[in-house]
Target: TerB family tellurite resistance protein
Amino acid sequence: MVQERLNVLIQLAASDNQVAEKEARLIHMIGQSNGLSREEVDQMLGNPAKPIGDLSTLSSDQKFEHLYHVVQLMKVDGQVFKSEIAFCQDIAERLGYKKGVIAELSSKIFSDPAITSDRDHLKKKTQKFLK
Model:
């Protein structure tokens, strides 16, 4: 499950044809906080083409965490590309949300992972975007 979530983040990071250092750091932080070694994360970063699995089977908490991390990663390098927004919207739809959830979360999630948002509040806001 952790590998699938990181796979999505790695594909987002690579969607602009370059994984920024800040993106790689955030991916490592998420991977290691979920029990993966640095080497396992490095191996995944080296192979970003793995297909994205079925995200609809995740629990509602897992879907929200997935969405939160995708938006955070999109913003972490301080540059947001159209390709990244489109990718995030696609992931949101695969998770069962409407595309508009990305704009809602993007305005409330900070690019610095050290600054945390009120996740419970954000989770409640995302509920209105469920299909």
About this structure: Residues 74 and 80 are 6 Å apart (CA to CA). The longest helix spans residues 60-76.
